[in-house]
Write a structure and sequence with these properties.
The complex is a heterodimer of chains A (178) and B (197). Chain A has 178 residues and is of the alpha+beta class. Chain A has 4 helices and 7 strands. In chain A, helix 1 packs antiparallel against helix 2. In chain B, helix 3 packs antiparallel against helix 4 and helix 3 runs parallel beside helix 5. Classes of the chains: A alpha+beta (178), B alpha+beta (197).
Amino acid sequence: MNESGRSLIGKYTSLTSRDALYEAADSFEIETRSGYEIVERRVLYDDVMFVTHHRHHGAAYLITTGSVALFFLALVLIIMFAIPGAWPAAVFVGILGLPALIGFLMRAFIGVFTVTIYGRRSKAAIRFRLRRERAQEAYERICAIVRNAQSSAAPPSEPPPSSAAEDRADHVAGTLPV
Amino acid sequence: MSAAAAMYTGPQCPRCDKPLPDYSVYDGTIICPSCTGEFEGTVFHPVERQVQAPRIAAETPEGANVCATHPRNAAVTSCQRCGLFICSLCDMNLGTGSFCPSCFERVRAEGALDAAPRRYRDYTGIAWLCILGGFLVWFLMLPISAFAIYCAVKGLRQARERGRPRGGAIAAIIFGVLELVTSIGIIALFVYAIANA
């Protein structure tokens, strides 16, 4: 844990917001940055019901990057076959489209790994691009944190001995012989 | 609260966000009955929280006040807004004093509950945006850089109050000052050039 009493577990970045998940003393803290506003939420360790881990590809991302890559590929082909001797221009256009192609291929073959925490009232998610091991580590770390917190919060198996005040209350209520 | 958050009812499929039936929530590899997507899951059984409200019978008969809402519970404090006696079940305390549930809702709706703010402005981020904007819109660099320094100082104060890292705010102050000095230098150069023309 750092000086602020929490340590970063992972992040979830989307087009509109950036979430960061921290391990704090008694809860997972989720810091959502949307524009220039920060919203903090919590999932208490005692409230966690379910933790999941899965890999997905994201159809919207694949369609977008695939379309951009195809567009630039088409441009390259047009330049190469329509304008003789213009191969430097084709190479330049090809380089412009390369990031989209790389993004498409990596997402298609490797995917994105998401860990989701479901609490009683709220949930949190973190995402790891291309890093399966990191995602698995985060999943195991989250499970261990929750397991520790919930086992320490579990009530004792034996009921505590009744105090004098409770005995007096039972006598008042008439459940015990006086 | 967003509609999605308002509708959250418990464990869902992480792929399709549909609620999972109880028989689909178990340890190991799970297949969602709605989307047939596969994911790994671990189930936890959180302990139900119980507020220990001391029963009125457990207190001395003469000394205990009764909660206004729960007559069987002893009052532990009184609402600081309306003065109602409240038990530990009714005590809504977020660090700024005890309120009964109805007063708590009213105070929260009025926005007067300043304890533990959960939504705040990212002044450090605004400062960095201004610093970048100052270089892009160079003829407005002076006022923009001054505003960037103001935001960065607010960001630094915010980070100190919340116990967050201060490096970003300090760096924004330094860059803001550099930009301010640069803008003053540019203005001085213009004035010098006009005076010698």
